User: Fold this.
Amino acid sequence: MQLGTVIGSATATIKHDSMVGCRLLVVQPLNINRKAEGDPIVVVDKLGAGEGQTVVLNADGKFAREYVNHPKSPVRWTVIGIENA
Assistant:
């Protein structure tokens, strides 16, 4: 699991069938001190996170395929929690 801050959203005109209807967010990963670390990543969100929110991310491919209900989905990163402020 990884913490991250939502910094925006992404739009794809063409995407894998498993991602149709899913929101794509751009998230900046955070280190243990909650400072930006590494490059932003695109994640699938079904929970409704918004810009500026801290989210809990999961990078487990098996979970991601279950999350989007597709056995051959290319999705890797998913939002599994939103921090309450």
About this structure: The radius of gyration is 12 Å. The first helix runs from residue 61 to 67. The first strand starts at residue 2 and ends at 10. The CA atoms of residues 6 and 51 lie 5 Å apart.
